[in-house]
Amino acid sequence: MRTEVRILDDSSSEEVARNVADILLRGGICIIPTDTLYGIITLEQFSSSVRRIFEIKRRPSSKLFIRLIGEAETLRTYTDQELPPSIRRYWPGPLTVIFRGLKEETVAVRFPDDPFLARVFSHIGNRGIVAPSANISGEADIFDCRELFATFEGLVDIIVCRRGGLKVTKPSTIVDVTQEPWRIVRQGALEIEIEN
User: Fold this and answer.
1) What is the DSSP letter of 2?
2) pTM of whole model > 0.70?
3) Are strands 106-110 and 67-68 parallel, antiparallel or unpaired?
4) 151, 159 Cβ separation under 8 angstroms
5) How far apart, in whole angstroms, are the C-alpha atoms of residue 169 and residue 153?
6) CA gap 2, 23 in Å, rounded
7) 4-94+112-166 has which CATH code?
8) Along the 196 residues of the chain, how does pLDDT read in single tens digits?
9) Residue pair 65/51 in contact by the 8 Å Cβ criterion
10) How far apart are CA 113 and CA 111, in angstroms?
11) Domain ranges of the chain
């Protein structure tokens, strides 16, 4: 597989978003910047592509991936739980919430605050994206485009690098609301306190 590399900046954002959306709608796998880390993404409707991401990341299939959504209403496709009002103010943003799932025991969902991802969602519609971080499972997060290419060249359809690099940051904060009291699973990019 030939891996395309695109540089993302303000002038290329719409064109690159269309390119990524076209690849996703064909069942492809992309690496893109998010509002926290680089993510390795595919549409969850393509189960063979989701399985391929497990293989690429060398991640155990028991460790499920988070879903990115482009609008809060998409949450209803994953859970019958409501987003608690006390944490609603953090969406969109770097907060992943674990809910009771409709199709699986639990599901982790994030509504990112990122203009580029919003453009991608505008082209793919109301579809969930499987989106773990773009690294080998258990290894350090990757912020450098050259390292992304060295690690994933030939394994993904496209790598989108932010011009000037991605700011080194923490992954999203994770909160579990499947039972009370809610708990912070990981304190990440968003510093919050739980208010049950």
Assistant:
1) P
2) yes
3) parallel
4) no
5) 24
6) 13
7) 3.90.870.10
8) 899 999 999 999 999 999 999 999 999 999 999 999 999 999 999 999 999 999 999 998 888 899 999 999 999 999 999 988 888 899 999 999 999 999 889 999 999 999 999 999 999 998 999 999 999 999 999 999 999 999 999 999 999 999 988 887 888 999 999 988 889 999 988 888 776 6
9) no
10) 7
11) 4-94+112-166
Edge-first strand order for the sheet with 95-100 is 4-8, 158-162, 30-33, 38-43, 129-130, 67-68, 106-110, 95-100, 173-176, 183-186
Nearest to 2 by CA among 153, 121, 146, 139: 153
- Cβ distance 38 to 32 under 8 Å? yes
Q: Rounded CA gap, 144 and 163, in Å?
A: 11
| Angle of the 115-124 helix axis to the 13-25 helix axis, nearest 10 | 40
